[in-house]
């Protein structure tokens, strides 16, 4: 069975839950994956780092908790410090170049996610949706079209255009990444 | 270990995922529960009924999938038809009186959720958040205050006042419910 365990992590307010819901919906509703999307709260979840998990598989997902991540997306240093041990050695880390200084992992893609959101969309708020575009392009797990459909049902209508442009800007960033474990 | 398995179910567009995220955050971040919030997508999830699950416990949640529900909230007939078999015999069903005609379960609370949203808030769109207020009052699992905090980080600022009023309107509806398994 093909199975991918994905974690989006950052600080509260960076919108990793919304982004994960959209990713799971794009994959599960529009591309036929089995998908489970989860967030957990508990003493270990308090204190800054916020995370949301997505598991995609080509068959039923019996155990819906991430064990070893194939992909960790880190939008803050604290998130990387906390969750990097959960990433497979052959997995991929995608990090924001502004908020993450250090990510000691052999396969790390460092992208100007928040900077591009600021520069191209005027607000860092769009970093989470922009990041989805990059994930899609780098991993090939979902199409840009499916993400656009999922976004349209999850964001307020007046921001749909900006969010769509955020997806496209992220996709472009992803297109600049030469090699990664998913394409290998 | 105390553990409560909760499912919010309706049709796409009724906002059960957002409501579940808010419920889990209220319980997990502001009230010290261990909480897991999940949505699943797969062939069985297609075709109308939309659902989101929340598990609350007073200790770590090792298996994060709902097995037998303590509480099923149904905002559509299709959702009730599909998920009622998952509700414990001694569990509680809360249903919308407008959208659910039939709910053959011994402990069913029927409330004018969508109607109250229309009448008091001007839009049915607020039914999901209003429902959270009713759940809180009926079950005692989270306080109105914690829900307000969680809502404030999850809805656009310009709608915060309406959403807060939705929570309060739901709480009032819940206050009219005389007996339920949670208070017994």
TrEMBL record, chains A, B:
This is 2-oxoacid:ferredoxin oxidoreductase subunit gamma. Keywords: Oxidoreductase. The keyword Zinc-finger does not apply. Pfam families: POR (PF01558). GO terms for molecular function: oxidoreductase activity, acting on the aldehyde or oxo group of donors. It comes from the Bacteria. Residues 12-171 form the Pyruvate/ketoisovalerate oxidoreductase catalytic domain.
